[in-house]
Design goal:
The structure is a homodimer. Chain A is α+β, with helices and mostly antiparallel strands. The first copy, chain A, is built from 9 helices and 4 strands. In chain A, strand 1, helix 1 and strand 2 form a beta-alpha-beta unit. Chain A starts with a strand and ends in an 8-residue tail after the last helix. Chains A and B meet through helix 3 and helix 7 of A and helix 3 and helix 7 of B.
Chain lengths: 228, 228
C-alpha cells in the first residue's frame, strides 16, 4: 500500500516548501518508496489531529501513523533497512548532531531571509497565523527582516562553513553517497528554493554545487519541484 | 612498541592543553593504547620537522609518522579497529561534520575567552609568537579579548545548542558510548579546563554534565590532568 503524507502547501497546492517534508520526501525516494502527498496548510491543525500533534510531516503507512521528520526517518530505516539512510554503528547518533545543527543554525538563518516571501505564497487563511507566529519567533516584523535580508544572508552563508569544509574531502555529507544527513540539509535549501527567489547561496559556493547534486538525485526529485 | 606523541605544553611541562592533542589522547585511551608524550612548545617547529609540517599532535608509531588529529584518528581506526572510534557505515563521514563544526565554532569561541590565560602559561620563548599569531587571527589584543570574555562566553554557550539537544536523547554524541565525536568536543573543553580557570560552561549546563562523564572515562584521564 502506498504511504500517505500530509505535506505543507501554499495558496498554490502544488507549491510544497516545508524543509522537514522535503527531508522525508528525499528519504522516501532514497528507499525507493512511493508516497501520495496531501496538501496541508498551516492552520489545518484539525486535519492532522489524528497524529496527536499539530505539525507536518505526518505519514500514514497502513495502520501506522508517524509524525516528526526525524522519527519518520527512523521508522523508514526500521521498516525498510535497505538502502540505508544512516548505516550502522554511530552513524545515526552522529547524524542527530547534524539534525540539531540544521535546526539551530539553518532554520533561523534561512527564515530571516525568506519569511516574507513565504507569507506571500501562503494560503490566505494561513497569513494572519503565519505572520503572528513568525514575527514572535524571529522578534521582528516580516517587512523589517525582508529589508535586512542581504545582511542576514551573509550571516547564513558564513554559518555553512562546516558543510563547506566537509565537502572539500567527500561528495556528500554521508560520504561517497547521500545519507539522511544530506536529506536534512538539502531539505532546508529546498524550503528556500521553493518558497522564494532569493539566492541563499552565491554562485561560486561549493554548497550550491552539492545542492545541485542533491536536486538531481532520485530522478531529479528536487530539481523538478515547483518553485514560487 | 609504545607510540610517541609530541604534545603541546606550557612553561610547566606537565601542563598539556592542546585541544587536538587531547582528542588524540582520548582516542588512544579508547583503544587501550599506551603512548609516551613528549612536551613540545609552539615555537619548536624544528623538533617536529620530521613530520613534514609544523603543528602537534604528531605521533610516531614505529617507523610510521602521522600528524593532524583527524588523520591520526583514522590511522588508529585502521591499525586497531576495535574498539571502534567511529563504527562503520556513514559514522566517520558524519563525524567529519562534527569535526569541522568544532573547528569553526568551538575553537574561536573558546579562544576568545581564554587566549590571554594561555599566553600567561605559555613558555616564555613562545609568548611573542603566541601573542602575534593569536592577535592577528582573532583581530583583537589579548587584553581586549580578556576584558570582554563574559560576553564572548555567552555567545559560545549559545553556540553549543546542537550538543545540548543531542544530549537530551542520548548520553554521548556517539550514542550509548563515546566515539571520536565525543573525543573531539571534549578535547576542546579540556583545552579550556587545563589552560584557564575561566568557567566556559555554567554549572547547570547539560554539556558540563556530559563533559564530566567524558573526563571520568578511561580511568579518569581527563579528570586527573594538571590544570593551570
Amino acid at each position: 500500500m502506498t504511504m500517505m503524507m500530509h505535506d505543507l502547501a501554499g495558496a498554490d497546492a502544488d507549491l510544497r516548501f516545508s524543509p522537514y517534508c522535503w527531508s522525508v520526501k528525499f528519504a522516501l525516494a532514497h528507499k525507493g518508496l512511493s508516497v501520495e502527498t496531501i496538501p496541508w496548510r498551516f492552520t489545518e491543525k484539525a486535519v492532522i489531529a489524528f497524529s496527536g500533534q499539530k505539525l507536518v510531516p505526518v505519514i500514514r503507512d497502513g495502520e501506522r501513523v508517524v509524525s516528526d521528520s526525524w522519527k519518520i526517518a527512523e521508522y523508514l530505516e526500521e521498516t525498510h533497512p535497505e538502502p540505508a539512510l544512516f548505516g550502522t554503528g554511530a552513524a545515526c547518533a552522529h547524524a542527530l548532531f547534524i539534525r540539531h545543527w540544521a535546526d539551530a543554525v539553518m532554520v533561523p538563518g534561512i527564515a530571516r531571509c525568506i519569511v516574507r516571501d513565504i507569507w506571500e505564497i501562503a494560503d490566505p487563511r494561513d497569513k494572519p497565523y503565519f505572520r503572528e507566529t513568525r514575527e514572535a519567533w524571529l522578534g521582528s516584523s516580516l517587512e523589517q527582516l525582508h529589508a535586512d535580508r542581504d545582511q542576514h544572508a551573509g550571516v547564513f552563508r558564513a554559518s555553512l562553513g562546516p558543510v563547506r569544509s566537509v565537502l572539500k574531502t567527500q561528495p556528500f555529507l554521508g560520504g561517497t553517497s547521500p545519507t539522511y544527513a544530506d536529506h536534512m540539509v538539502a531539505g532546508m535549501l529546498m524550503w528556500a528554493r521553493c518558497a522564494s527567489r532569493f539566492p541563499m547561496l552565491t554562485d561560486d559556493d561549493s554548497v550550491g554545487t552539492w545542492f545541485g547534486r542533491m536536486m538531481d538525485q532520485y530522478g531529479g526529485l528536487g530539481r523538478s519541484a515547483k518553485v514560487a
